[in-house]
Each structure stands twice: as C-alpha cells, then as structure tokens.
Design goal:
The chain is α/β, with parallel strands linked by helices and 296 residues long. The chain folds into 2 domains: 5-95 and 189-292, TIM Barrel; 103-175, no CATH class. It has 11 helices and 8 strands. The protein has helices at 21-30, 47-57, 88-113, 121-127, 135-144, 167-175, 191-200, 210-214, 220-225, 241-253, 284-292, and strands spanning 5-9, 35-41, 60-61, 64-71, 74-81, 204-207, 231-236, 257-261. Strands 1, 2, 3, 4, 5, 6, 7 and 8 form an 8-stranded mixed β-sheet that branches. The longest helix has 26 residues, at 88-113. The two termini are 21 Å apart.
Length: 296
C-alpha cells in the first residue's frame, strides 16, 4: 500500500518544531512523500519557503495552517488547507496568539518552578532564542539538567519510563495541557469563527487528531460537523486503531474529506517520523478527495 502523503508537519516556525521548511521538504523527498503540508501552529510564516523548495524537489505542497480554537470549552486544532494565507485576517490571527503566548510565558516559568525546579529565563533563551516558552521547551531543558537527573517528576520521561516515547511533548500534555498544573489560558477563537474564516478565504477546514482532543467526548463530533467542518484527520500518529476506525467511519458517514498526518515535529516528538500517520487505506483515495476539494 502506497504511503506518499503527509498533511500535518511542523517547522521551526511553530515554536516547538525543530527544522526549517527547506529541511522538511528534503526529509519528505527522502521519505518518498509526494504531497505534503507544513501546518504550523497559528502561523503562516513558513509557507513561502516551503513552496520554493517543493517546486525544486517536485513535491506538491498544500498551503496550510493549524489554528487553535475552542468548542464547548475544549481546546481544538483545525487545519485550514488551501487557504489564502496572504489575507490580513489570517495574519491577525497569528499576531493575536503570538502576543498572548508572549504574555503567558513568564507565568509558565513561575508555575514550572513551583513544581520544585529553579529555571532561569536565560536558560530558556539559550536553547531557543525567543521569549515564547512552551511546555516542550521546559521539558527539554529540565531533562537535560544534571541537577534533576533523579527528580521524581521527570522519571516517567526518561529512557524506559512510561512517557519516554515522546518525552518533551508528553511533558507538555501532562503539565501544560488544558486543566494541568502549569496550564495558562490563551483566549482562542471559537470553532465556528475559524471555520467561517477558513471558508471565507477559500480553504477547507479539517479537524486535526480528534482522538487526542475529544478524548471521551466523541459525541460532540456531529455537532462540530454541523458547523461546517469539511474534513477530519482520521489517520494520525496519535490515534489508536479504535480511534482511526471511529473517525474514518464518521468521516465516510458525513461525506467529509478524510486526511492523514504524522504531526512530525522532530526532537520534540522523536517517536514520530515523517509519513507516520498510521494510515490504513490506499492513499490514492485521499489524493482523489484532495482533488475534489480543489486542493491539488
């Protein structure tokens, strides 16, 4: 079965990605990916570079952005594919989230230190030259510090621990995710608002890794579709076979665009490789749907 599509990849522009768009395009070429999409978090900064190198490597790229939004007080990710990313309203979304992330970073540092650590601002900037500090960054630095090699909180994320497959990302989910000890609220737009914006600028709105965000609230999916969702990322590196089958079936039932994405980040999620979307169907059918939606 051919595996040549990856519609969910992150670059350094995401803040938690490791590689530039150029490097990612080259990695896709090495992995025999023929259709790709860099879908950075709330930013379109890497799309132009991606397009340049995709043209050189003869890889088809779909302009995309992964947008945080809220539905029923649940944080969700929607990927806008084929969106006109030059529009001011799209750029304003990025600016809004950037400014909030900047204002919350020092609060995250205080909450992290309250767990029993003593991190300094300069340590964070030394690893990533930015004043936006993510949970993944905190995890990376703490796990690298000799002083904390035996710290109880960090043991699950070290080699052999139950959360060691993607230690930095898992540290984020366990401590900085919604409802966790170091969570800092960012005010995101509603799902309805994001779907309307994506449609306004010619894109298709696809719910990313729903099994990861909806958890045991799958019943909400029908309500979300009724708002105008175009598709669902049924095939994701995060999903169990049960979750894949559920969202694939729902996608077919609702006549949605069904997509596949690895959510590759590099060192933040080392267990995930480009193209690793756990796709269980022939990707020719995904390519056919992408054409039907005018994305190719």
């Amino acid at each position: 079965m051919k595996n040549y599509i990856d519609l969910h990849i992150h670059s350094i522009h995401s803040g938690d990605g490791e590689f530039t768009p150029e490097v990612l395009v080259r990695k896709c070429e090495e992995a025999n990916i023929k259709i790709m999409a860099i879908a950075d978090h709330n930013t379109i900064s890497g799309i132009e570079e991606e397009k340049i190198y995709c043209k050189k490597m003869r890889i088809i790229c779909i302009p995309a952005v992964e947008i945080d939004c809220i539905f029923n007080n649940i944080n969700l990710h929607v990927i806008g594919y084929g969106i006109d990313y030059t529009k001011e309203e799209i750029i304003a979304l990025e600016k809004n989230v950037f400014e909030q992330e900047l204002s919350k970073s020092k609060e995250r540092l205080e909450l992290t230190n309250a767990l029993g650590f003593e991190l300094k601002e300069d340590e964070l900037r030394a690893v990533r030259n930015s004043d936006i500090w993510t949970g993944e960054l905190f995890g990376e630095i703490l796990l690298s510090k000799e002083a904390y090699k035996d710290h109880e909180i960090l043991k699950p994320y070290r080699k052999g621990g139950e959360r060691s497959d993607n230690p930095y990302a898992n540290f984020f989910w366990d401590f900085y995710g919604q409802g966790k000890p170091c969570y800092t609220e960012i005010k995101y737009p509603s799902l309805d608002t994001i779907i309307k914006i994506v449609h306004k600028y010619g894109g298709a709105a696809v719910l990313a890794h729903p099994g990861n965000n909806l958890k045991n609230k799958y019943g909400l999916f029908d309500d979300m579709v009724s708002l105008g969702l175009d598709g669902v990322e049924a095939f994701s590196s995060y999903h169990s076979l049960e979750e894949i089958n559920y969202f694939y079936r729902k996608g077919k039932e609702k006549n949605l665009l069904i997509t596949c994405g690895s959510d590759y980040h590099g060192k933040t999620k080392p267990a995930i490789a480009i193209g690793d979307s756990k796709c269980t169907i022939d990707q020719d059918s995904i390519e056919k749907q992408l054409k039907e939606y005018g994305l190719l």
